[in-house]
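Exercise: predict the structure of this protein bound to flavin-adenine dinucleotide.
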Amino acid sequence: MGKLHVKAAVIGAGLAGLVAARELCREGHQVVVFERANDVGGTWLYDPRIESDPLGLDPGRNIVHASMHRSLRVNLPRQLMGFSDYQFLKKGCGDPRSFPGHEEVLRFLRGFMEDSGLIELIRFGHEVVRVERAVEGRRDQWAVEWRTCGGEEVAGVEVFEAVVVCNGKYTQPKIAEFPGRSTWQGEQLHSHNYRVPEPYKDKIVLIIGRGVSASEIAQDILPFAREVHQASRETNLEVVKLRKVPGVFQHPMIAWADEDGRLVFQDESSIYRYHFPFLKTEGLVNVDDNRVGPLYKHVFPPSLAPWLSFIGIPYLTFPAQLSELQSRWVAKVLSGELVLPSDEEMMSSVQEHYQHIEELGWPKRFTHRLEQGKFEYEKWLVDQLGLPSMEQRSEKMVLILSELFKFRQFADEHWRDNLDVEKLMQENQAKSLN
Ligand code: FAD
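Solution:
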């Protein structure tokens, strides 16, 4: 039997949407990409504006998609941020560092779009407002309703056989709750709305969390603020050591806040929420305590597979490699080259995964967190796709990543500039050849 070629809608033209579009096209599918913004890049499209509610609690606030602060530099070396056949190379006119500023990632993604011939597939300034099955009982007929953003509003509904959701996961803030937060008189803001340090001049600032962003923002604010404090529930000493910023006072988590401004510390988790406001599936796909489910291998809801899929849901991974592998898998399943298990088998795999999360002692909201440094999920995808060369690439990435973590543990805030990534890669190349 020949390959099937389907009409697919991709929602979002960030990194995931771009690579999904490329993989779907390569497999011969007919693709339309809907992008709310007027440019590609998603997260990497720096926007100096902040939202009308800096905590992101008001559902009616103006939404700003990107979470980047002005001085942000990547935290993975560019050598690990490219696609398998389109590397994130140092080009003449950009930022040549191994850990460049955010603008360089945007240049890379624009280049990827142009060189892959994707531009004519993208409808910029088109927000998808509803995705729903067009015919009751059928999984391969989806109504996609869109409207234009800015200027004169135009709206429409089109029917697609497949929908690939790539709307990103870093826009809907999830805030750290503690007793007294809502009546506390200080200024409160989610990192999604942090851009520049100047407004914190001479202030006492408390940062909640010990993720990469929290520690980097602490470092960014330190030269301006009177004092910077950091509180978190993190108990893993390795992480605490790794993300400790010299000069920042460290605390356990806040127990409560007094109205007079005093904060009492106690001894975090994901700071964003998955959010698919356009998706109407009559309960077949839900977000419950940050678990998007049920999703077979974080991609396909069994009862709607393969016609509805999600790219880029898991975290603690290499986003470019993961999105590429997932997209290729979706493209090949849609064309019939690869076959999914039955709905029942997919559901029992989902249940097994939930069981595994429980056994790890992880809460439900960690469902899409990958076990750091293991790359089992990525290897599973590589295996499905029969890609031995990518398997080698994953192995190399594991080695480099563990070296990178070791280096960061003992380094100061200039670690990005002090690490010779090329040398590290050559040493690991030699190791993996031996
Ligand atoms: P996004 O980039 O968020 O793109 C989603 C797109 O969907 C957007 O363009 C948006 O406008 C569009 N969209 C959303 N809803 C709709 C709708 N209804 N209709 C139409 N369009 C819609 N990764 C790294 O590899 N290295 C790093 O150093 C790194 N640092 C990071 C630092 C921060 C602060 C953050 C937040 C993330 C970082 N990441 C990093 C991860 C980064 O998010 C991923 O690399 C990647 O950019 C995610 O791409 P995406 O396409 O999944 O989502």
